[in-house]
Design brief:
Oligomer: heterodimer
Number of strands of chain A: 23
CATH superfamily of the largest domain in chain A: FAD/NAD(P)-binding domain
Distance between the termini of chain A: 21 Å
CATH topology of chain B: Ubiquitin-like (UB roll)
CATH architecture of the largest domain in chain A: 3-Layer(bba) Sandwich
Structural class of chain A: alpha/beta
Strand order of the largest sheet of chain B: 2-1-5-3-4
CATH class of the largest domain in chain A: Alpha Beta
CATH class of chain B: Alpha Beta
Number of domains of chain A: 2
Strand content of chain A: 25-35%
Largest interface: A-B, 20 and 16 residues
Helix content of chain A: 10-25%
CATH superfamily of chain B: Beta-grasp domain
Shape of chain A: elongated
Distance between the termini of chain B: 32 Å
CATH topology of the largest domain in chain A: FAD/NAD(P)-binding domain
């Protein structure tokens, strides 16, 4: 069990700056994030995009901002549990919280601050009836172990880099018995090299390429057996398959947080603007994941919210201690 | 009225919503829908990164060509048709006065 003062769920800009503000109060933080690296959507979605409204930075790239925030909070030595989404929040008898991740990693702290941004990034699922029924029975959204597909008939769907790259990988390494790539349009938007390679492999018959088509139906008694592919001009194609791997990128959703007994509104966690606390004492929500009258989803607002939340957290952890605001300019920053 | 255009949104139940949109506030279709509390999520905030504001163009309104980012996103989205666009990439300008858009599922 990992023990700390504050568990921060979400290692985006607001989570990282909250570590710094907590550190000034000598509170130690541990961050949990479903993505394998810190930075949240700034790194996952738009690392190269410029941001113009961070005070003091006329222009800063999202990736650079995260680097700076990591540097800024590093003096307070935050812990990280990355690549694991937080799925369970339990309260102990003495009022502390245990947060458990999908891989079973447990974290204990008196305070939980949810800085979850857009939520958890999950694979985008195509709207096919009965798709969910065949999950792990032939339908997978992520390729964890390529050898799992040894000698199987695999259908990959999608037009981006991951669909192209995995199709190439599974065929080039002679893993699959048969590979079909289904894409809604005739052109692909992946790297030119990958597109060319897939076209070459399709020309010599190593990849069965079906464009202008979508997988629309799945059937099978115990597990996936056949797929129905709808072609824009040729009509329905029914083919036998062992696995169907739709690769349509990631999309954020509130995820397990929605089941933690927190008051929600419009897919966000309701907070009190006094200290950004939720309806559960000791649990706070800051940044894009929260909502309150007048809420603005801006990084700079999240910084403010995290700052006030840790003040309240301090008072909760040390009810008998008085905290006096000290300017960093006066005392500097003393790390752990 | 000057600096105001008419935008018609057909929601997922088929109901028509006639909205008046200002052209001088740098707004896009996703934002005007949200302002009027129509069920458009706009998760990514308008960066053409989530397709939760997908609409179908149902009028002959000429629109600027799709950017690479918009095309790329629509490639990964679902329920995409030939007339699909991302609401966040359509700016409210005089040129689109009278546009009719239907919300994608």
């Amino acid at each position: 069990m990992i023990e700390t003062d504050i568990i921060i769920i979400g290692a985006g800009p607001v989570g990282l700056f909250t570590v710094f503000e907590a550190g000034l109060l000598k509170l130690k933080c541990h961050l949990i994030d479903s993505l394998p690296m810190p930075g949240g959507q700034l790194i996952e979605i738009y690392p190269k995009k410029p941001i113009y409204d961070i005070p003091g930075f006329p222009i800063v790239n999202a990736g650079e901002l995260i680097d700076s925030l990591m540097k800024q909070c590093s003096v307070f030595k935050p812990g990280f549990t990355l690549g694991e989404s937080a799925i369970k929040l339990e309260e102990t008898e003495n009022g502390k919280f245990i947060v458990t991740t999908i891989k079973g990693t447990r974290h204990l702290a008196p305070i939980v601050i949810i800085a979850g941004g857009l939520g958890v990034f999950e694979p985008r699922k195509p709207p096919i009836e009965s798709l969910v029924k065949y999950e792990d029975k032939g339908v997978e959204y992520i390729i964890r172990n390529p050898e799992f597909y040894k000698d199987k008939r695999v259908v990959v769907s999608g037009g981006g880099d991951s669909a192209l790259d995995w199709s190439i990988y599974l065929v080039e390494n002679k893993i699959v018995n048969e590979l079909t790539l289904v894409h809604r349009r005739t052109s692909f938007r992946g790297h030119l090299d990958s597109v060319q390679k897939v076209m070459d492999m399709a020309a010599d018959g190593r990849i069965k390429l079906i464009t202008d088509a979508e997988v629309v139906g799945i059937s099978g008694s115990e597990k996936l057996e056949t797929l129905t592919i709808k072609h824009s001009t040729l009509g329905d194609i029914v083919m036998k398959a062992d696995h169907f791997i739709p690769l349509f990128g990631l999309t954020p959703s509130l995820g397990p947080i929605a089941t933690w007994g927190l008051d929600l509104e419009k897919n966000a966690v309701k907070v009190d603007t006094l200290d950004y606390s939720t309806n559960r004492k000791g649990v706070y929500a800051v940044g894009d994941i929260n909502t309150y009258p007048g809420k603005l989803k801006l990084i700079l607002c999240g910084f403010h919210e995290g700052t006030l939340a840790v003040q309240s957290a301090f008072a909760r952890i040390y009810p008998n201690k008085k905290n006096v605001l000290k300017y960093t300019t006066v005392n500097g920053v003393t790390g752990f | 009225m000057e600096n105001t255009i008419k935008v018609t949104i057909i929601d997922r139940e088929g109901a028509l919503h006639d909205l008046e949109g200002p052209t001088d506030m740098n707004l896009n279709i996703m934002e005007i829908c949200k302002m009027h509390e129509l069920p458009v999520e706009g998760i990514c905030g308008g960066m053409a990164l989530c397709a939760s504001c997908q609409v179908y163009l149902e009028s002959e309104t000429p629109l600027p060509e799709q950017s690479d980012a918009e095309q790329g996103m629509l490639d990964e989205a679902f329920h995409v048709k030939d007339n699909s666009r991302l609401g966040c990439q359509i700016r409210l300008t005089q040129e689109i006065d009278g546009i009719i858009l239907r919300l994608a599922p």
